[in-house]
Structures are given as structure tokens and as C-alpha cells.
Amino acid sequence: MSEPQLQMPRACDSCEHYKPVGWGEDKHCPFPRQSASAPKPTRTPYGRCDLHGTEVFATEICNSHEPEPFVHLVDVTNRPEPRTAIQERLL
Question: Is residue 34 part of a domain?
Fold first, then answer.
């Protein structure tokens, strides 16, 4: 078995169900400023979750996460609010 070759956050961005769409306005944008004088970023990548059938930010975390092959996952803190509310599977 091969070792993981890419490091990504344990979030939608590294999930097999996530398909990127673009960038959306996000009041909880997690990205840092480019410089001390630059404004705080307000846009986060988002995409479509094929499992839940809804739009999600790439930085969201859910219980149905299935990582892409050859990815080493890094634990991250979940967002305070999702792009769209998702009903998780209970079983």
C-alpha cells in the first residue's frame, strides 16, 4: 500500500463527495490576510456535496466524510455555520 502523498484538512475539500463550484461570500472566512494592511478575506471556496445533495463550503466538516485516496488528513476546527443546513445520517 502506498503512503499518502498529499496533506489536506479533514473537511469537505478532501472528500470524495465534494465537487468544487467556485467562491462564495462567507462571514466566517478562515483565510488569513495577505499582509497587515490588507482587508480580511470574505470569500471561501464552495462546491456541491453529492451525498447530501446541497451546496457546502470547502471548509465544512460532516460525519459522512470519505477522504480521497492518497490523502493524509489533518484535523481542523469546524465552522460556526454551514453554507446550507445538512441533515446527517443517524445510522
Answer: no
